[in-house]
Structure formats: C-alpha cells, structure tokens
Amino acid sequence: MCPGEQARGIKVYSSQEQSPAGHPEQASLYVHWPYCLKRCSYCNFNKYIPRSVNNEVMTECLQQEIRTLLQLSHVSQISSVFFGGGTPSLAQTSTVAAVLESVSAHARLHEHAEVTLEVNPAPSGRTALRDFVSAGVNRFSVGVQSLNEFSLRVLGRDHDPQQALQTLEEARTLCPGRVSVDVMFGIPGQSVASWERELEEVLRVCDDHVSLYQLTLERGTHLYKQVEQGNVSMPADDVTASMYKSARKVLEQAGFLQYEVSNFARHNAVSTHNLGYWRAQPYIGVGPGAHGRFVPRALGLIHREARTQTLEPDFWMREVQQHGHATRRRIQLSQQGLLEEVLVMGLRLTEGISHKHWAAFSPEVNLHQVLGASADVQKLQQRGFLILDDRGLRCSWEGLALLDGILPVLLLELDTFFSTPTSADGHKEI
Ligand SMILES: C[S@@+](CC[C@H](N)C(=O)[O-])C[C@H]1O[C@@H](n2cnc3c(N)ncnc32)[C@H](O)[C@@H]1O
Ligand code: SF4
Question: Which GO terms describe its biological process (predicted)?
Fold first, then answer.
C-alpha cells in the first residue's frame, strides 16, 4: 500500500506519519465479546454459551479495563477498534457506544478511525446493525462461512444461506465499501468444483473485502471428535491446497488484490486494524482472553510486553472489579522474541518486510546479516518461494501458500544468529 493512501475514508498511515514499529503513544484496540448463541462444531475460540449475560457489569468492566490499560501504557491515541468474539453482534449497542466513549475520554480516537464489528448472520434474520452504526461502528465483518446449506450444517452454524445473505445486504447498505465476509474452505463434503461454484456465488453478493479461512481441525471440538470416530472426513491436503490456489485466482480475476495470506481487498478496502497486527504495531486487548502488545510505562519506553487477559468471563469481571484490569499473563518480549513476531506476522503480507520496517525493530542488524548467509534460506530463494532483495524479505506467490513450512527455517536462522557469540570486532563468530 502506498504511503498516505486514503481508501474510502479508511486512514492508512504513511511511514512519514508513523514509524513502522509504531509510536508507543499510538495503538489499536481489540475488544473481545465472549458470548455466543450456539457452539459451532469447529470452533475453539474463547467463547461461552451463557444462560444470561450481565450486560451492565460487562460494559462497566470493559470500560474499566480500557481506562486501566491506557493508563498503564504510553498509549494516548487509538488508531482503530475491533470488536471480535465470540459474537459481538449479540452485545447491546449501548455497550459498543460506552466502550467507544471510554476510548474517546481517555485517548484520542481519530475521527476516521476504522471501527469494526464482527457480525454473525442472525438466526432470526434480523439484526440491529443500524444501531451499531449509530454507536460508532463504521465497518462490518460478516461471518458468512458458507452459502451451502449442507456445509453450514456440518459447521454447526445456526443460520442458513438466506439469513447470511440478508445480514450481508443490511451491512452493505449501512457501510458500503466497508464490509468484509469470512468464508471457509476445506469443509467436509466440499470438492474443488463445489468450492469454486460457492466462491462465485460469494463474489456476486460480497462487498470489497473477503477473508478466506481454511477449516482447521481443532482438538476438543465436536468436529474433531466426529473425524476421530470416523463419522466425518476432512478433505485431503492436496484438495485444500487446490482450493486455496483456485480461490486466489478467482478472487484476483474479480479485481481483488491479495494483501495477506487469507485476506483480499478491492478498491483498497484493506483492514487497517489487521494490518497493524501484521506490521507488528502495538495494540491493547480488553475483554476475556484478549491479547495485547504494548510498552508499559514502568519499563521506560523500551520493552514491549505480550499480555493475555483472564479467559473466563465471570473471573475476568471479578478481577477487573478488584484490580481495574484482568491481565493473567505478562511476558516481556526479548529482542529475539520481538523479531520473531515481526517475521511471523510480516511474512503473511504480500508486501512482506521492508528493510525500513525491519530496521525499526532491529537497527543494528539487517535482514541480509541475519538470513543472507544461510544455505537453507538460499535454497528457498532458489526454489522461488522466498525473495530477499533490495526491498526486503517477502514470499513469492507460490511461497505464500507454503508459509507454514518456510517460517520454521527462518526462525531457526534467527535463533542461530542470536545464540552465536559476537567477536570483539562486532562480527558473529560463525
Ligand atoms: C471466531 S470467529 C468470530 C466471529 C463470529 N462469531 C463468527 O463465527 O463468524 C472469527 C473467524 O474465525 C474463523 N474460524 C474460527 N474457527 C476456525 C477454524 N477451526 N478453522 C478455520 N477458521 C476458523 C471463522 O471463519 C470466523 O469467521
Ligand atoms: S465460530 Fe463464531 S459463532 Fe461459532 S462458536 Fe465460534 S465464535 Fe461463536
């Protein structure tokens, strides 16, 4: 994305405005709403199916945790907000409004900041998306997952294709150009041909952003048990690889630019919030089980921390009420740990990691010094999967599909680099 580019009111920060490592005063905010109506067969996210929800206490606690974490951090400016879950479209619109008011009261929330809400197609076919827009939401991410009745049943979704289309239409009317759809492939019973037909159907109804997820079999889920018992079988790896390959081509032909492993946008309708993660910029996470990455005040502007909030909503609420926040785990990221995140996240982007971006996290050693001499990295380059040149480090079109195999090689090289002693003249003793 070009510096300073404006995409339909979505602010994309240029490198002049913000260092690639992110200013410690600026961060994005993730808000986790942990409740769902029903457990989908494949999902192991942090979600709960409650008998009732105490909306008032949840709202107060989210507001309190935002206040506390903003105070504990150096963050004075929030660049984007993402309400994820769980099913945040089940939250009351007053909760969303209250959260955004808290942000504005304790930090600067840019007028055009992207504010996304994940939306589940409503089983009743009716949602209150208009009220969410009044509360400050300006982008929707709709969990369509599939437009095939049978697939939706396998996934254990509580909506049918018609309800998904209705919700999508409502979202598009309210936020034209700012609606994303989540679609899954690799679903039991799906073939490459049926997936291609389904994707064509998605393309007829979708807006300018598509997220494609390969269904992964997660331990502890109902689907995992079904597969283990031999009642259901997952498509073979070569089939899912073909599905991904053909989806990339179909989306490209429809004018979508792939900017990340799973994300495609046309008219530059990229998600600035998610770009922040992939560019390893700081973020604050509030709500049960939320993750965050920011520099706490006490550590004096140097060390970034990885934070995880308490998972279970009732415990989370109690801890927030007692301590102002419910951070369960805090890990100070080492220089190596930070660079691992820069690699793992940055290589998901088609733009990869520029030298300037890397230098913002590693001013002393550049990408060539860390990876250039490695025989394994050179092999990946010769095979056409990886590119390390004057621009920086990135995957080729083929390489992006093999990222899970490429990353361990790079992380091992990084580890070798950090564990190799440095000689008196500053060189690594290889
Ligand atoms: C956890 S959901 C939350 C949003 C919303 N509740 C929904 O279901 O649409 C976020 C996205 O993660 C993806 N996801 C969740 N579990 C997955 C799995 N096992 N494999 C692949 N994608 C998954 C789904 O596509 C979903 O849209
Ligand atoms: S996929 Fe979404 S709706 Fe289904 S259980 Fe997971 S978080 Fe809830």
Answer: porphyrin-containing compound biosynthetic process
Per the structure, the count of domains in the chain is 2
Ligand (nearest to CA of 41) = 2
Nearest-CA residue for ligand 1 atom 16 is 43
Domain of 343 in residue numbering reads as 339-419
Mean pLDDT by 10 residues, the chain (430 residues): 27 35 82 97 97 97 98 94 97 97 96 96 76 97 97 96 95 97 98 97 98 97 98 97 98 98 98 98 98 84 88 98 98 95 98 98 96 97 98 98 98 94 64
Of 277, 294, 325, the position where a domain reaches its end is 277
The answer to whether the CB of 222 is under 6 A from ligand 2 is no
Atom of ligand 1 nearest to the CA of 223: 19
- In this prediction the pTM is 0.93
Q: Are 192 and 223 in contact (CB under 8 A)?
A: no
Residues 204 and 62 in one domain: yes
Question: Is 153 domain-assigned?
Answer: yes
129 vs 171: CA distance, rounded Å: 7
Of 33, 118, 223, 227, which is best to mutate to test ligand 1, by the most ligand atoms within 8 angstroms of its C-beta?
118
Query: What CA–CA distance (Å, rounded) separates 394 from 348?
Result: 9
What is the reported pLDDT for 126? 59
Atom 7 of ligand 1, nearest CA residue? 143
- Residues 226 and 95 occupy one common structural domain: yes
Pocket of ligand 1 (CB under 6 A): 42-43, 45, 85, 87, 118, 120, 143, 145, 182, 184, 213, 215-216, 218
Kindly give the residue spans of alpha helices, DSSP state H, lying in 265-402: 272-278, 313-323, 335-346, 355-361, 367, 375-382, 397-400
Task: Please check whether residues 220 and 89 belong to one and the same domain.
Answer: yes
Give the number of the ligand closest to the Cα of residue 42. Answer: 1
Where residue 384 sits, what CATH number does that domain have? 1.10.10
The reported pLDDT for the residue numbered 122 is 83
Position 333 in a domain: no
